[in-house]
Amino acid sequence: TPEEKQFICEQMAREMMLICVHPALDSAKKMQIAAPPEFEWLKNGSAKLRSSSAGDGAGETAAASDGGMLGKLASGLQKVGNAVSQGGASLLAGTLDIAVGQVEKPFSKVAAGVVAERQEAIADTLCAYIIATSVPDAASMISSGPRSVSEHLVTQAAPTIAEHLKPKVEDSIQNSVGLKAWNSAIETYNSAAEKFNLFKRIEYDIGSYTLEQTVRGIAALIADQEEAIRKNPENKATYAPKVFAKVFKGEVLTAADYKTVKNFAA
Predict the structure, then answer these.
(1) Where would you tag: which of 64, 172, 247, 256 has the fewest CB atoms within 10 A of its CB?
(2) Average pLDDT, integer, range 129-143
(3) Separation of alpha carbons 31 and 19, rounded Å
(4) No. of helices (H) and no. of strands (E), the chain
């Protein structure tokens, strides 16, 4: 019956996701996320400062220290106070260049680092969410594309999953090199905004952005796993494996299949 088919497909959709979670997280070291659109404001900020300084005779430039990334940021931030007090837009532009230059690469690796640090907690949270989630019209959803289960159960639910994950990973995100570099650049940019009134301050919840992008990155990796499993679904599931293969090969389901899945579910 249609109700029996729905029951089978809903169970198998969840099984697909549960199968995919751990291999997806194992592959997360290749995951990268982009800085938010506000990063372009940071990059444009130094150009505006230099344009302003061209008319006021300021000709100083900030020199980077040789102490590595954190040393450069610390040195640059120490010069912010001097730049503000002296009205040195050119000096502050150089400091902003240093800070901005240290953001993009480490920020792109934040998600991979968070997964590496909190993989089991992330897996447990994802699996609990998948088990608890309903899958309406599961049969047509499964047949709508090679990544359709992931798209419906994980990608579209990314904001909700992020809220579930937040208490497990928030400190890992905030303590990452990428977030610290972003915060240093924002501090420099906002100091310039307050002094020279050339652009507005940036007030942005970078932690929430990073968390949601991390979830979306994980969702894409889960979808990769789903697509690969669909090409050869035999012997992939521990839960009613023969029925699982039939569902994802698009074969006709029977009353016996329903009974098998019902027994597993019990």
Answers:
(1) 256
(2) 93
(3) 19
(4) 13, 0
Q: Which long-range contacts (CB under 8 A, 24 or more apart) does 248-256 make?
A: 248/12, 248/16, 248/142, 250/143, 253/4, 253/5, 253/8, 255/4
Q: What is the pLDDT of residues 20-45, one digit of tens each?
A: 999 999 999 989 999 988 888 888 87
What is the C-alpha separation between 259 and 238, in angstroms, rounded? Answer: 16
Q: Look up residue 152 and give its amino acid.
A: H
How far apart, in whole angstroms, are the C-alpha atoms of residue 127 and residue 14?
Answer: 9
**Digit-coded pLDDT (tens) for 200-224:** 888 989 999 999 999 999 999 999 9
The pLDDT assigned to 84 comes to: 45
Residue 178 · residue 108 · CB < 8 Å = yes
Nearest to 89 by CA among 131, 124, 121, 60: 60
* Amino acid 100: pLDDT: 80
Whether the CB-CB separation of 207 and 36 falls below 8 Å is answered with no
Distance of alpha carbon 4 from alpha carbon 119, whole angstroms: 35
Q: Which of 15, 9, 236 is nearest to 127 (CA)?
A: 15
The whole-angstrom separation of Cα 96 and Cα 211 is: 26
CA distance 99 to 182: 8
The amino acid at 25:
L
The pLDDT of residue 86 is above 80: no
Over the range 78-98, which residues count as b (16 or more CB within 10 Å of their CB) and which as e? ebbeebbeeebbbbbbbbbbb
Least confident window among 22-26, 75-79, 262-266: 75-79
Residue pair 260/243 in contact (Cβ under 8 Å)? The answer is yes
Q: Tokens representing 231?
A: 């090409």
Q: Is 229 exposed, middle or buried (0-12, 13-18, 19+ CB in 10 A)?
A: buried
d(CA 202, CA 242): 55
